Structure formats: C-alpha cells, structure tokens
Amino acid sequence: MFVNNINSTMKNFFLSSAMLLLVAGCASAPPDDPLEPFNRSMFSFNEKLDDVVTKPAAKAYVAVTPAPVRTWVSNFFSNLQDPWISFNNLLQGKPTDALNDLMRFVFNSTLGIGGLLDIASEAGLPKHDEDFGQTLGVWGVKEGSFIVLPLLGPRTVRDTVAMPLDSAAESPWSLPYGDPMVRDSATRYGISGLKLLNSRARVLGLERTLDEGTLDKYRYARDFYLQQRRFKVYDGNPPLEYDDFDPDEDVAETPQEPGENQ
Description:
Layout: H1 2-26, H2 36-64, H3 67-91, H4 95-110, H5 119-122, H6 132-138, E1 146-149, E2 153-156, H7 157-170, H8 185-201, H9 206-213, H10 217-233
Helix pairs in contact: 1-7, 2-8, 3-4, 6-7
C-alpha cells in the first residue's frame, strides 16, 4: 500500500511539476527559490522523519551488516544504474562515455558476479554519474524553481519532471510488469527498502558536518544541491554566475599598495 501511494504521489508530482515549470518562468520572486516558505517547511518535515525512521534504521543496518557485504550491496545497485547512465551519455552526445558505461555493466554483471564486485573500475573503466535531469539540462531545458519534495528531498523542477523516468530505469524491480522473479510485492518492497537503507547508511555522519558548518541548514543544503547539479550538467565547467566579471580586466587599474614600484 505504501509503495502504491508513493507511485500515485510521484504521478501527482509529475503533473504539478509541469505546472510549476510554467509558473517559474513568470515568477517575480528571487531566483532559484521562489517557494522558500514551503521548501523550509518540507525540509524540516524530512529532517524529523529522518531522525525518527530512516537514520535509526540505517544505523541498525550498519551495526548488523559486515562492511564487505555493504560494499557488495552498493556495487549491486550501482551496477544496475550503468545502462541508464550509458543511455544518457549517448543522449548527451558522449558516445565514448556511453560505451564505457555499457562495458562496465557487461564486465561487472559477468566477471563481477552479478555486479557484487566492481571489476570494471579495477580494469580502468571509470564510473560516471548521469541521469535524465542532466540530459534535459544539456538539451537546454532550464532548471526551474528549487523545490523540496516530501520524503524525496531537494530537487529542481527539471529534475522533478525527470525523476519518474530515472526511478523506473534505475529500479526496474519496482515496476509491476518487470522481471517475473521480483513481481511479488514483498520482494519488490524488500529490494527498495534495502536500497534506501544502503543509500542512507553511506552518508551517515554527514549531518554532523552540516550541523557544525552552518547556522542555516536549509540554505546550505539548497545551495549545495544547486551547485552540484549545475556542476554535473556542465561536466565540471559551469558558466560564471556573474556576467559582469571580467577575468582579463587590466590589473593596472588595481590600486597599488603604498611603496610598490617606487
């Protein structure tokens, strides 16, 4: 029932996000975050839910699961992402990276025992991180407003629109018409729960850095998310945010310290 509700919620988000994308272009509110009051409330809700449910479950998972097993679980889910990453690299006009990702999947699915071992990285095939939200960005689709979704966390409107497709491609077992071996609801829920626990366990401790590093956790999380998404869309070379900055400005106009060149 919970997963069915989530699927229904995602459909509603898909429709509402399309409306938000239209509204965002006409909004006169500050850039990036015209929905800040709603976002702050949802950010607080997600934090409380994490404190009560997700974080304790992740700590228990770490306590009872040996480190090598957690590594195998991470490798398994990471391997399932590679075909979708390959496809997005192809859509972005990067055929070499797309071939790299496809070869990663082949190597790890066979020599890596179904993806439990990351043979491909040891063979010199690096792991990439691409999704359809990034592909839309490469195609010129604007990111739209920043929004914090219940349970799902920070997004932009563009990433929210792309999210159902990304989720279906990276988690094929969640589809009711997927592999017959995982059509059983309990199996699907179990795999999805394991993926969630594993993902949360991998970032345990980062909240301490967030707590100690800023007085405004929401703003810090928002700015970090937007910056890292732009970094990924532009493959590490995002455009300057300030158009009036001229790196070639004549240094002679810079005031000199007393005593210089005398």
